[in-house]
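Page 47, continued from p. 46.
Same chain as before, 67 aa.
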Amino acid sequence: MKIQQIAGIALLIAGILLLFFGWQSSQSIGEQLVETITGRFTDNTMWYFIVGAVTSVVGVCLLAIKK
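Result:
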């Protein structure tokens, strides 16, 4: 297994975990209250979603690219 594949798998797993933590954070009572009042999630939750999505995409790209 090449380093590129190992890095891709690691980034994909990290991205999925960050997305899961973001989802968990968005389901909390406090977060739902903030979303109801302001119409958007807190900055911390949004960072989980953004970084998780970018990390997952980079991981998939590393796995898809063949040298």
